[in-house]
Amino acid sequence: MKPASTEWTYGDDGKARILVVDDDPRLLSGLASLLRSKGYEVTEAEGGRMACRILESESFDLAMLDLRMPDVDGFGVMERLSSEQPECGVIVVSGESSFSSVSRALRRGALDYIRKPFDPEELLATVDGVLGKRSLLRAHEHIRMRLEKSEELHRYIVNSSPDIVFMLDGDGHFCFVNSKIESLLGYQPTELCGRHFRHILDDRDIARGTYALKGPNISADNPRTLEVRLKTRGSRKATRHFEITAFPIDPETWPHTNHDDGKYNGREARYYGTARDVTERKEAEAFINFQAYHDLLTRLPNRALFKDRLDLAITHARRSEQKLAVMFLDLDRFKVINDTLGHAMGDRLLQAVTQRLERCLRKGDTLSRFGGDEFTLLLPSIHGYEDARQISKKLIKALRAPFQLGDHEVFVGVSIGIATYPEAGESMDQLIQNADIAMYHVKARGKDGYRFYSESMSIDTANRLSLERDLRMALERDELRVFYQPQVCSSSNRVVGLEALVRWQHPERGLLYPRDFLPLAEETKLIAKLSECVLDQACHDVGQWIREGHSDLRLAVNLSPVQVEHPRFVETLMAQLQAHGFPPQNLEIEITENVIMNDLEQISQKLRELASLGVRIAIDDFGTGYSSLNYIHRLPIHTLKVDQSFVKAIRRGEDGACIVNAIVAMAHGLKLQIVAEGVETDEQLTYLKSLGCHQVQGFFYGPARPADVIGKTLGHTPARAVAF
């Protein structure tokens, strides 16, 4: 069966193809000849049966048939045409003239009815008219189908667009929106048509979005483009970023009819445009911007953003004649925890520290991570020193409570330097540098505190840099010297120990004392190497005297917090002793209470390990730090050294004497040795003897001396007249 076609079926020569059907051969031949004379391509079928066979293999534009035929009548042929070639037109040429026959033929789809005998001219005119009409109908149908396909294609393109496509009326109400809005924002197109587009604008962009369409100079060549946030359906908080491009519609070129599916909502479109989802791009830009100005570990502003905000704050403070403060914060003992527990735990600690610090701040303050374990804090618009002082106290208190890192409980203090504007500097760099200097002065005085910057802290920056350079060279050129101060038994006046004290033989400045360079050594991280050099020299000198017959002579050395807090402290110390063949039982290490309390658990373990190897433990400057019977009872301590500030205050009835009394009594109760520092007068020595103080040291027996002097006098009983 040949399929129906919607195309016009002219033959290859462009002539219309006509099937002529009649059971009278003479009439059939005459009609076919007439039609051929007018240029039509004619096929003859003698009777309805033959016509049906021909229709199985050929297609026609027009069939002219008789109604009354013996085998298959005209109505049967028409039925076959209707089912197989519905586009083929039919003209009945018949001798039947009854109304019922004519009516039935027309109902079956005949386009015209010609009675036999026919007028040739009339018949040709009828054929020409029917074919012309069929041609117009087919052309119209063809155009309609093309338009329908075109509309389907455009609708597919619009709804398949990766962007939201919309139309608005002159007031900004939706006339049309494609289905993409459902997948991007969750709205049905039908629920938005007729509503103002501000309905989906984020509240922060409503004013800017509505003004955009009302702006001047918007045209097809100059469309309005802007970025806005659009709300997703059902949540005001969920927003996405879109780039909107809107064009005005020219009323002269736009059809004013409403769309048949109702999406135009009876409104006349005046704008059309697209909305492209740029959320991922905006988020990527925001992340890149965040990376550029924030520390990714703590999420705090980084150095660049802090300086930018400080610069703005200085400008504001200068204009409004206000004060501001810059704080430089350095965590105490962070490096030890980081080295001991690993960098992952160190990172967790920094995050926990950040959270505590942020809870202490005011709105408008800026806390930044400056690098490593260093933080900076900007306090704008303060009234004076007291505001900065109160914030500092809150920060220090916040960090004193222990941090829980997995199974470990660790303690971290903070040293804070403060520089105020304009007293401590009027520029950004000056304030940061001076706050840094003040912080290192806190470090040098025992950490875990705060200090305001003053001019005396930085006499000459160039001199400071020069001294740092010289100190580094001093370690290489062996310019450090070890002096020794005797520790004397108060009852027998016999030297029982020597405290090793460092001096620096500077090639230009002469002999420098610890107060001149130890703070700088702490600040520049050279203190560990310096202490190692001192211990090496002291082990060499005192070890030699021990081997020469002073077998009970004790070496007392001060150790820096950096050394004690190092994870391999015990291993390194014992390796040094072994290298010099120095007996551990002749060594007494002196550490301060602050070092112990920074991490009581870890320090206790190290001290117990040393004590088990024979090393003695002394608490230096006792009474000036935390002074807790609890930690003294828990630690393997052998000696308490009474700070010289209490010894100097010994007068009958003064507070200093009461403190010394209490310390000595406590030491006796705990069966600890007592060494009193800074003894300078007979009165002090007599008082200490009366209390039962075991050992003393100080200028009463002379200042600290170099090894060659000590070596010559070790055999003598020290007295004030002797060369100690």
From TrEMBL:
Record InterPro entries: Biofilm_reg_signaling, CheY-like_superfamily, EAL_dom, EAL_sf, GGDEF_dom, Nucleotide_cyclase, PAS, PAS-like_dom_sf
Keyword Cell inner membrane applies: no
GO molecular function, one term: cyclic-guanylate-specific phosphodiesterase activity
Catalytic class of the enzyme: hydrolase
Domain PAS: 150-202
Entry EC no(s): 3.1.4.52
Catalytic reaction(s) noted: 3',3'-c-di-GMP + H2O = 5'-phosphoguanylyl(3'->5')guanosine + H(+)
NCBIfam families attached to this UniProt entry: GGDEF, sensory_box
Name of this chain's protein: cyclic-guanylate-specific phosphodiesterase
Keywords: c-di-GMP, Phosphoprotein
Modified residues (4-aspartylphosphate): 66
GO BP field: cellular response to nitric oxide; phosphorelay signal transduction system; regulation of DNA-templated transcription
Annotated EAL domain residues: 464-718
The protein's required cofactors: Mg(2+)
Domain of life: Bacteria
